Amino acid sequence: MKNHIVVLVLLFSILFFACDNQPNPVTIRGTIKGLEGEMVYAKQINPFIYNSNSLLDSSKIDKNGMFEFKIDEPLPILLNLSKGNWQHPVNQVLQDAPENYYFGYCAMFYLPEPTLYLSESSPIDLDWTVKGSLDSFAFKNLNYDHQDKFYKYYRQENLSEGLYEGGDFKKMEVQKAWNVIEQAIHETLEKYDVEGTEERDNYNAYLYTEIKMGAINMFINWFEAIYEEELNLAFTSEEVPPLYTSAFTIYSNEEWNYQSVEFYKMTERFVTYSLNKSRREFQTYYPSNEEKIALAKKILPADLVDMYITNIQF
């Protein structure tokens, strides 16, 4: 009998903590003038599930201009509020052309309408103002200073500016290009007061990942455009240039925020790079197949691999 009681207590404890760990729905309410009676939509931005429907909730704007969303998803989450009932552009671009993952989005995917990084279940109340091509919004009940950083970063920064000349990548020594990127990373992190953090899910970690992975992605874009022939020979001879390899070492050796599109791009790139080494050839993308999936299982972190594989097996 005692054993039965112990088992029941253990089962109750497991159920209690499992329920206790479920995400609490986030309520987002607000006002938007001039669109009374129309619909607005809440969409998730997460390239690791780009084959899923990005639409999470919808709300009809009442006669007072008020709307409300209930977001019942695990946090953190990157969320777009939109006046249009279509797939978020990140999802759409990757669905239509997954081979272009390394140019899989642009800053304007985030800027025209409210985009929120949510890591806590506190309710949100905001004023949303339609302003031509770039809407604006303000929080009424929370101090969301990081949203100002978010918008300034996507409006202003061009981490790879030093790699271009007249709109095209310019030829230069690899070390010089790497120095350009390292300097851009340092200056941008300092400008936005961003540091690496062990708390992978907070906003600081998100922006850190976007900045550092974004710059390294562009370095690889530059390298593969300028030195494509050399890379073909390098993978064949198994003598991959050290600075090219360094980009993937950085990816492997740090903690990154999984909401970041730039982290997704580097994950896909890391799998491609590993396949290139295994096959002794140079490609910028491999369609999903058993070889790619098997390799991803070996090289990706355990908490990432299922999400990545589920997406590419779609």
Summary keywords:
4-stranded antiparallel sheet; 16% strand; alpha+beta; 4-stranded mixed sheet; globular; 10 strands; Immunoglobulin-like; 314 residues
Any overview of this molecule?
46% of the residues lie in helices and 16% in strands. The chain is α+β, with helices and mostly antiparallel strands. It folds into 2 domains: 23-142, Sandwich (Immunoglobulin-like); 157-312, no CATH class. The longest helix has 24 residues, at 203-226. The radius of gyration is 22 Å and the shape is globular. The model is unreliable at 1-22 (pLDDT under 50).
Strand and helix order: HEEEEEHEEEHEEHHHHHHH
Count of individual domains: 2
- For the report, how would you describe the main beta sheet? 4 strands, mixed
Structural class: alpha+beta
Please tell me what the overall shape is: globular
In total, the number of strands is 10
Number of helices: 10
Quaternary organisation: single chain
**Strand composition percent:** 15-25%
Output the radius of gyration.
22 Å
Distance between the termini: 49 Å
Biggest sheet: strand arrangement: 4-1-7-8
Low-confidence stretches: 1-22
SSE map:
Layout: H1 2-20, E1 26-32, E2 39-44, E3 55-60, E4 66-71, E5 77-82, H2 89-96, E6 115-118, E7 124-129, E8 136-139, H3 145-156, E9 164-165, E10 168-169, H4 174-191, H5 203-226, H6 228-237, H7 242-253, H8 261-279, H9 290-299, H10 302-312
Parallel strand pairs: 1-7
Antiparallel strand pairs: 1-4, 2-3, 2-5, 5-6, 7-8, 9-10
Helix pairs in contact: 4-5, 5-8, 8-9
